[in-house]
């Protein structure tokens, strides 16, 4: 099961060693440990651009992982892969599933907003003005939520919200 480390990056190797030590020390079930190994191997494959292998590992991790918080990150990473491959609808599905399990994922909210913003731009290119307005409104809604959770992040989104008059308020 363990993935052969192709990356000679010191930080990646250090993380792998530390993760293995922590897993041996923590009182976790065999399934939880196995799920983590698949998740870690998925992250490694994803960072190397091996998306098919990463997806296989993430799907295996989902079969084993029971903790909703951990599952949310697996789902989020699956969404990242689909988004990077231009499969935006599928990416949105996985980002929303991740948020159902963990509402405190500003990065998922941001990525949803980015997709809606992109769709809004495409609608403008295709002269579908009403559709573009709807997409931009959706983008604003998700960026507002992301900024509430992470006020120091997403500066470009904050500027976009200000310049388009879709200002947000952090109460």
Describe the structure.
- The chain has helices at residues 10-25, 30-47, 51-64, 68-84, 88-101, 106-125, 129-149, 155-163.
- The chain is mainly α and 171 residues long.
- It folds into two domains: 10-102, Alpha Horseshoe (Serine Threonine Protein Phosphatase 5, Tetratricopeptide repeat); 104-170.
- Helix 2 packs antiparallel against helix 3 and helix 3 runs antiparallel to helix 4 (68-84).
- The longest helix is centred in the last third of the chain and has 21 residues, at 129-149.
- Belongs to the Ycf3 family.
- It is found in: Plastid, Chloroplast thylakoid membrane.
- Seems to be required for the assembly of the photosystem I complex.
Write out key terms for the chains shown.
8 helices, 171 residues, elongated, mainly alpha, 2 domains
Question: What's the SSE blueprint?
Answer:
Layout: H1 10-25, H2 30-47, H3 51-64, H4 68-84, H5 88-101, H6 106-125, H7 129-149, H8 155-163
Helix pairs in contact: 2-3, 3-4, 4-5, 5-6, 6-7
Function: Seems to be required for the assembly of the photosystem I complex.
Subcellular location: Plastid, Chloroplast thylakoid membrane
Pfam families: TPR_1
